[in-house]
Amino acid sequence: MIRQTLALLLLCSPALAATPAYLDVATSPKGSTAADMFRDLGQVCTGTSFLRQRQTSGSVENLELLLNNQVSLAFVQLDVLKARDQIDQDPRVRALKTLLPLNFDEVHLIARPAVTTTNLLGRTSVRGIQAFSDLQGRKLGAWGGSVITARVLSAKAGVPMTIQEYRGRDEAMAALNAGQVDAVLAVAGQPADWIKALNPAAYRLVPLNIAPARVNGFYRPATLRYPGLGEGVTTYAVQRLLVTRDFKTPERRAALLNYQKCALSKLTQLQETQGFHPKWSDVTFKEQNWPWFK
């Protein structure tokens, strides 16, 4: 009887009840910036065993899972949040909170190399995508949050195009290789390993020639630097946030606030630990445009 009473007291003690069993976190595919940063945070803030990673196709799926209560936290691009709020006018989005404002991910516009031809009169012409504006009336492939980014940039730049949505990057790149789309747009933290691995003889990074005045707000100018694929390619970047539901349960709030506090206090360690994602050097934990979880 005494042992049973002690066991019951231990189970009901505040110390043991202070941490939830687990909370699922939607990241992105293995090797993505979000997945790597979640891994790095777990190594620095060791008391995170209650967080369980769920790899997904990216921001759109992550947001959907979070809104439908299938995960508790999600890595989401700011433009995806804004589009769901301002364009789709989904009232549920307003209830989400920023746990951590993270890095800015660059927009990568990938195309096959342009082909130069000379006619019988000696006049040369170039066929292919050499800038974002060349996509007018053409087809652009994208997946996940990149689909939203493509739609927003197309509207802001005044460059109408057909945006073809795919299930992932392999499917989108296969469509590019088959000539089914003229370019592929991918939002990813630079340097993205899969982009670094592209064959420079078969692919080029194309500049986003959109006037800054047209994309004012949550996009900021950026430059892509990938040897062979394009040095000094002008583009834009959008911030990625780790967002969560606005929990009221004391043990969940306490666990998440401790995780947040740890991350905010360990930024230098995250930036200087060898092997961690290089995008930590861009993080300030200050730039964001969505209410904090507090």
TrEMBL record:
Q: Residue span of the signal peptide, if any?
A: 1-17
Xref: InterPro entries: TRAP_TAXI
Q: Does the keyword Methyltransferase apply?
A: no
**Gene3D superfamilies recorded for this chain?**
Periplasmic binding protein-like II
Record keywords: Signal
Pfam annotation, one family: NMT1_3
Q: What is this protein called?
A: TAXI family TRAP transporter solute-binding subunit
